[in-house]
Task: structure prediction
Amino acid sequence: MVGIARTLVCLVPLALPAQSADPSPVESKIRQAVIEFQNQDFAGARAVLREALAASPNNVEARELESMCSLRLKDYASAAESTKRLLDVKIDAGYLLAQLSLAYTRAGMYPERDATRDRIRRLVNEGKLPDGFYYVFDSFVVNGYRIEVSEFPKLTGHKEFPYQRYHFDVLDAHDEQLYRIVLASNAADQDTWAAKHGADAEAGMRVFSLDRYDGRHSGPAAVYRFYDGEPTYQQVCGHVKEAVLGALKPIAPDQYGRRPEPN
Result:
């Protein structure tokens, strides 16, 4: 598990474009915008980039950075529109689909978000997105905390998040992550569970756990519950809401303080 800092989407690395001997006005504006972005002047960077795009509407580099500025400025509808235009050029690019789903989710544009999720699932089924792909697709509020949800369409998941299905990032009023609740199916639990549920394991069933990560441990800080087989998203949401409210308590560790094991 990585640190508590939230990873929402995998954006392209931000770097200054190669300096030519005689840069064009558009190239000069992009370089200026990159510097302003690095200085966290996102409004200034976006204004310069929009000047560049007015002169060169199909400049992908300017469009990508402009969409990132809109995200940082929380102008999610604009970020979505820019990302859609990028996907016309970089068709089915995973990082852009993740960015588009994030923008639609935060903008509350739910029909568009659902259509993007359908597109992502189709591409996953066709093997056109990598195993580590994940994306934000839902957001809701519990007890004053906003919870933003990411899905790993392939259970094999990211190399840093093996066998995880959902991340529920619990955020404060400043959108800073307080902790994360994860629906996972890790190998150690599967081995323990399979020894007691041989027929189910042979049939391909897995055991899942609802875990809490708070950044102080390489593994889960707490386990709320286990599931025999993968629960529905609605079931998991209900349990996450109970956990955030304090109604669902973590399972006590064994007498040696070790993580609980599935029955």
